[in-house]
Amino acid sequence: MMDIIFPPFPVDVLPDRLHERLAAAAEEEDLLDVAYRVYDSPVGPLLLAATAEGLVKVAFARQDHEAVLAALAQAISPRILRAPGRLDEVARQLDEYFAGERRTFDVALDFRLARGFRLSVLEHLPEIAYGHTESYAQVATAAGSPKAVRAVGTACALNPLPVVVPCHRVVRSDGSYGQYAGGEEAKRVLLTMEAA
């Protein structure tokens, strides 16, 4: 068995070939708990992170990718490495989505960062059809708690998998956008793209 020592500095400063060898060795020895990459999208750079179970995190640049990685190290494991290959399928499906060729995602998801009612909300969101929206109140009812409108807002705000689990399709009862982890402009871009 090869000893893999995770360096105390950001691995992104390693020369590319050395980094690729480190990532391959960590994957081969089953020492890589969270793989990540940054995906360039029309709504800005998205951090994509996956465990062996599936996609666990999508984060916008405004959420501070370094802080997100630190939080993943605390919540899941410090064995995190930029290993884009594990996320190739997610990136391919995002390419298709942003090109208007995909309406739903078909990738394994790891929901370990959501529990209870928040998880119920997240499980409902993919049922909101592409190009359509639901109000926070409608989602609360669908998730089994009609009075939990504010809790739906919190669940959407803390959605660990935005875009892929489409919390951008949840709007206020008056049709206005409401808050979004990627910012109001990102939500507008996604909804406008889907409505076209």
The number of strands is 6
Sheet bearing the most strands, described?
4 strands, mixed
Helix percent band: 25-40%
Rg for CA atoms: 18 Å
The helix/strand order is HEEEHEHHEHHEH
The assembly state of the depicted protein chains is: single chain
What average pLDDT do the residues reach? 88
Class derived from helix and strand content: alpha/beta
Q: How far is it from the N-terminal to the C-terminal residue, by CA?
A: 53 Å
Q: Strand order of the main beta sheet, please?
A: 3-2-1-4
Low confidence ranges: 1-5
How large a portion of the residues is in β-strands, by DSSP E?
5-15%
In DSSP terms, counting alpha (H) and pi (I) runs of 4 or more, how many helices? 7
Describe the global form.
globular
Describe this structure in words.
This protein is 37% helix and 14% strand. It is α/β, with parallel strands linked by helices. The strands form 2 sheets. A 4-stranded mixed β-sheet has the order 3-2-1-4, with helices on both faces. Helix 4 (116-124) packs across helix 6 and helix 5 packs across helix 6. It is globular. The N and C termini lie far apart (53 Å).
What secondary-structure arrangement, pairings included, does this model have?
Elements: H1 16-28, E1 34-41, E2 44-50, E3 55-60, H2 65-75, E4 80-82, H3 88-98, H4 116-124, E5 134-135, H5 136-142, H6 149-157, E6 170-171, H7 184-195
Parallel strand pairs: 1-4, 5-6
Antiparallel strand pairs: 1-2, 2-3
Helix pairs in contact: 4-6, 5-6
